[in-house]
Amino acid sequence: MEEHHQHQDHTDCGIPKFDSRDLVIREDIMAKAKELAALIGTSEEVRQFQKAEKLIQNHERIQPLISAIKKKQKEIVAFESFQNKAMVEKIEREIAELQDELDGIPLVTEFQQSQSDINYLLQLVVSVIRDTVSEKVNVESGSEPAATSGYGE
């Protein structure tokens, strides 16, 4: 079995220094990450999001509102390039009215809530992983979480 060596610098203590772009993540770690992602994909939060997304795509009022907002955003860019401040302000007011109408549709609120729920779930999973790894690193190295190296003191 041939060993794969990466070019790496070493610190004064002989500890390898990796450039984050050169790190090769172990296949078993990546496999578990993909397994976790697939599991999250079956969660109730993701199901609700997909359901709301499908309803939004087929909604007779939401799609024209989104299209109108996008069109007006492009108009703003054009009028900004002509430095026509009055027209930019007028179109911004029109966009705000369209956005208010869009936000007033309960399905849009449900969709935004489901996006927020998924983000919360992902942040929670990342926090658990980070905290668990941090505990392991601190226990194994025998250091305190906020320990300093003593340099510059």
Automatic annotation (TrEMBL):
Domain of life: Bacteria
SUPFAM superfamilies: YheA/YmcA-like
InterPro entries: Bact_com_dev_regulator, Com_YlbF, YheA/YmcA-like_dom_sf
Name recorded for this polypeptide: YlbF family regulator
Species this chain originates from: Paenibacillus haidiansis
Lineage, highest ranks first: Bacteria, Bacillati, Bacillota, Bacilli, Bacillales
